[in-house]
Amino acid sequence: MSLDQIVDGLSEVSCDVLVIGGGTAGPMAALKAKLKNPKANVVLLEKANVKRSGAISMGMDGLNNAVIPGYATPEQYTKEITIANDGIVDQKAVYKYAQNCFGIIEELDSFGIRFLKNENGDYAVKKVHHIGTYVLPMPNGETVKKALYRQLRRARILISNRYMATRLLKSADGRIAGAVSVNTRTAEMLVIKAKAVILCMGAAGRLGLPTSGYMFGTYENAANSGDGYAMAYHAGAALANLECFQINPLIKDYNGPACAYVAGPFGAYTANNEGSRFIECDYWSGQMMLEFYNELLSGKGPVFLQLKHLHPDTISEIESTLHKVERPTRGLFQQGRGVDYRSESIEMHISEIGFCSGHSASGVFVDDNARTTVPGLYAAGDMASVPHNYMLGAFTNGAVAGIDAMEFADSHDFAKFDAADVAMERDRVMAPTKREDGIPPNQIEYKTRRLVNDYLQPPKVTRKYELGMRRLAEAREDMQERMIARNAHELLRALEVQSIMDCADMAAHASLYREESRWGLYHWRTDFPEKDNENWFCHTLLSKQNGKMTSEKRAVEPYVVPIADDEKDLYDKQRIRATA
Amino acid sequence: MPLASYQTSVPVVVDDAKCIADKGCTVCVDVCPLDVLRISDMTNKAYMAYDECWYCMPCEADCPTGAVTVNIPYLLR
């Protein structure tokens, strides 16, 4: 059989709770759903392989937002994230996370994942944020995925690897009914009926094009092509604050974190070409990114992560973390460049744009029970709207989603979907395989993402956006009418391009809707350079209404934890001021 | 429109002498998040079929015989 040969086929299975995405939030959601009702069927569907999928494919160096009794309180954390996210936060979900996350840490500990403790046996939490102390290193962080996998096997979760979900199915009355998926190696289609569905499909990380020009050299795991955002959109779910892009400070060209969260607590810092600090705090906020961007353009760049001033033993310790977990090829990269941390600083740059609530706030809108606006549909992790939630947020909110989804499944029967919807989706999915001649997905993807860089990345200029949207519409027409896929693997990429195109359109639409500047670099609109609390102190919700992309305002829920007026702009003062 | 093939030097290299794919091993192919590795019909050894690499390392870390090496893709080296 030739490579990835396309097989024609369609089958159907059913389960109580379907979890889509086996990275971080997904395994925890599946596990909690199953533990909630051990008799129920829980299916974990994954485009790659649950053993090594998602953002933490090679583990993680630590928790960036651990709210540990004795070091931080849920109130303090909720306040910090509210301020860091420029006030646009439904605090209930953040507060609930802050209350629940310590329990999840203890549970992860019971799975065999260790967290750094000091000589007294207390958690050795480090300070990286502007106000509070929440960073907890994980000494065996490379084992996270293995530890999770063991739990999934023990709980008898049904795992389906190499199936890419393409669209959600709903009943006539709008309730979730399941999902359509396609095998990434054979192109056979599988319909999964489910009473509840949890989307844990990660960030939209293949939206902008990295400056290296290598399409898969993205900050996010390149498998995270925004499929969850696109699926939620087409199912009619609301997506929140998509204009609050993710943009991160990374090792130049390598495009992975440098990583100030690891090295900062040891005394490393971000510096300009003069060796001077220019930001108050290395925590990734839009305000910090704006200063980073300004410094790069000011003539005082390049920007570096400075650690050569540290003791060689300290540098070795930092190195052993950076070159072992999360992105272990960092060591190989620096070696190739002849960079030794003991004598040379790490050149940094800013990443391509993406959607990711893990570090910013762009995600499918969810409440504090991880419910989307579609009954029976849940979302958690990088693709759900709880801001700045990182890995521990994915675990904690994944757990919330799993429990609530199983309760929903226990009290509902299967919703009925229209067979015509499946037939239509099959035609859409397979269309690129039916053409004899046309444009391969990699060219359409490159062009789309190049347009995203040229027209959509901040600073956001209205005229540029209008032009960009016209160019994207032309690329979309090519994608819909002329794209070809000659084997199942190419079909996987062809489907991903369609997610990327949808995300590009949503990024443009959402950005034009919010007529102010907010979140520092993430939503810097040159035509509306000021923050406008009077008109725009609100969420924006984007959704598909009568087949059309639509945006509307949604009020920020009353705060659970009040923020004093003199605290509101703490994150606006990121630039180090010259002292007399 | 006719299509041309586009040459790239791929980042993942497999040592055929160490690779045991011919004995039925598919570990590297199984774990790759981007699904870019395959077993060759000709040599029965693993190889990188698609240059779509996140240089993330599961293939190298999980290979039971140490046959797989992940290099940094040339464009960002």
From TrEMBL, chain A:
Lineage: Bacteria, Pseudomonadati, Pseudomonadota, Alphaproteobacteria, Hyphomicrobiales
Pfam families: FAD_binding_2 (PF00890), Succ_DH_flav_C (PF02910)
Top-level taxon in the UniProt lineage: Bacteria
Keywords: Flavoprotein, Oxidoreductase
GO biological process: anaerobic respiration
InterPro entries for the chain: FAD-dep_OxRdtase_2_FAD-bd, FAD/NAD-bd_sf, Fum_R/Succ_DH_flav-like_C_sf, Fum_Rdtase/Succ_DH_flav-like_C, SdhA/FrdA/AprA
A GO CC term assigned to this protein in UniProt: plasma membrane
Domain Fumarate reductase/succinate dehydrogenase flavoprotein-like C-terminal as annotated: residue spans: 468-560
GO molecular function, one term: flavin adenine dinucleotide binding
FAD-dependent oxidoreductase 2 FAD-binding domain: residues covered: 16-387
Organism in which the protein naturally occurs: Bradyrhizobium nitroreducens
Protein name: Oxidoreductase
Automatic annotation (TrEMBL), chain B:
Name assigned to this protein: 4Fe-4S ferredoxin
UniProt keyword Cytoplasm, yes or no: no
Lineage top rank: taxon: Bacteria
Gene3D superfamilies for this protein: 3.30.70.20
A single GO cellular-component term on record: cytoplasm
InterPro entries (UniProt xref): 4Fe4S_Fe-S-bd (IPR017896), 4Fe4S_Fe_S_CS (IPR017900), PSI_iron-sulfur_center (IPR050157)
Keywords, sorted A to Z: 4Fe-4S, Iron, Iron-sulfur, Metal-binding
Domain spans labelled 4Fe-4S ferredoxin-type: 10-42, 44-73
Keyword match Metal-binding: yes
GO molecular function: 4 iron, 4 sulfur cluster binding; metal ion binding
